[in-house]
C-alpha cells in the first residue's frame, strides 16, 4: 500500500475505512485512576452502530486488560486488542483472547516490590495485567522519578524479557515484541479489516506505534490533541457521523 499522508483534519466518514481506537483519553475521558473512569452511557450503542456500518471493521486497541475493557463496555461484541495487542479477541469469538505471544506472564516475584512501593507512596497505584504491569502516579505526581526508577530496575532484572513503556502519568512493563503497531498490522491481515484504509486514533505516546502502522498501510494517524481538540467527546462526535451513512456507502 502507498503510505498515508499527514492530515490536519479527520477524514470524512467512509465505509472503506477500518477504525482502530485507543480507549482512555480517546473514547473516554482520563480519570485520576484507571478504576475511576466513567464510560458515557451512549458509547456502547455508538460503537455497535459504527460496527454495523463498517461491516465489523472497528477495534479497540488499548493498554487495558481484556476483561476490564469488556466489563466497561458491557455486552458490545467488538474486536479488542488488549494490553497493547498482547491479547486479541475478535468480535464473534469466545471471551478467550488470541495471544500474540507465548512468553510467560510478568514475574510473580515483582508483586511484593510493587506492593511495598505503592504502600510507601500514597496515590501510587499498581495495575496488574495478564502480560505486564503498570505503575500509575497520576495522584502522586511527585513520585514520577521513583516510579520510573522502579520500572527501569524491574526491566533490568528481567534480562530483556520486559521493557519500560512511558505513558501518561504511568510507566508500564511489557514484553518488547508487543505494541499497538503490531496489533494493527495483524488485524489488517484478517477480515473484516483486510483491504481497507486504517485509521488509528490515540492520545498517548503508547499510541505512536499504532500511528506509524496505520500510515505505513496507507491510512491515517489521528492524535486526539491535534485532530479532536484534546476531547474524547469530539472523537465520539466524529464516530457518530458514521451512523448517518447507510451500510456499505463509500464517500
From TrEMBL:
Keywords: Hydrolase, Magnesium, Metal-binding. InterPro entries: HAD-like_sf, HAD-SF_hydro_IIB, HAD_sf, OTSB-like, Trehalose_PPase. CDD domains: HAD_TPP. Its cofactor is Mg(2+). It catalyses: alpha,alpha-trehalose 6-phosphate + H2O = alpha,alpha-trehalose + phosphate. Its EC number is 3.1.3.12. Removes the phosphate from trehalose 6-phosphate to produce free trehalose. Belongs to the trehalose phosphatase family. This is Trehalose 6-phosphate phosphatase. It comes from Dongia soli. The lineage of its organism: Bacteria, Pseudomonadati, Pseudomonadota, Alphaproteobacteria, Rhodospirillales. The gene is otsB.
Amino acid at each position: 500500500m502507498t503510505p498515508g499522508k499527514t492530515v490536519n483534519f479527520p477524514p470524512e466518514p467512509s465505509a472503506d475505512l477500518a477504525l482502530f481506537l485507543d480507549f482512555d483519553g480517546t473514547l473516554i475521558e482520563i480519570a485520576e485512576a484507571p478504576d475511576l473512569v466513567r464510560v458515557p452511557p451512549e458509547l456502547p450503542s455508538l460503537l455497535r452502530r459504527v460496527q454495523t456500518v463498517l461491516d465489523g471493521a472497528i477495534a479497540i486497541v488499548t493498554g487495558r486488560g481484556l476483561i476490564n475493557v469488556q466489563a466497561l463496555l458491557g455486552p458490545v461484541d467488538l474486536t479488542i486488542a488488549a494490553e497493547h495487542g498482547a491479547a486479541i479477541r475478535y468480535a464473534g469469538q469466545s471471551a478467550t483472547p488470541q495471544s500474540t505471544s507465548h512468553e510467560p506472564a510478568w514475574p510473580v516475584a515483582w508483586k511484593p516490590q510493587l506492593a511495598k512501593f505503592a504502600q510507601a507512596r500514597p496515590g501510587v497505584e499498581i495495575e496488574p495485567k495478564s502480560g505486564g504491569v503498570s505503575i500509575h502516579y497520576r495522584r502522586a505526581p511527585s513520585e514520577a522519578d521513583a516510579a520510573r526508577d522502579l520500572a527501569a530496575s524491574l526491566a533490568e532484572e528481567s534480562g530483556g524479557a520486559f521493557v519500560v513503556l512511558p505513558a501518561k502519568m504511568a510507566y508500564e512493563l511489557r514484553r518488547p515484541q508487543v505494541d499497538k503497531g503490531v496489533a494493527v498490522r495483524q488485524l489488517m491481515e484478517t477480515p473484516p479489516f483486510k483491504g481497507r484504509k486504517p485509521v488509528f486514533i490515540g492520545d498517548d505516546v503508547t499510541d505512536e506505534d499504532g500511528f506509524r502502522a496505520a500510515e505505513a498501510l496507507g491510512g491515517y494517524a489521528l492524535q486526539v490533541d491535534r485532530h479532536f481538540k484534546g476531547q474524547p467527546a469530539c472523537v465520539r462526535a466524529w464516530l457518530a457521523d458514521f451512523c448517518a451513512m447507510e451500510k456499505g456507502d463509500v464517500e
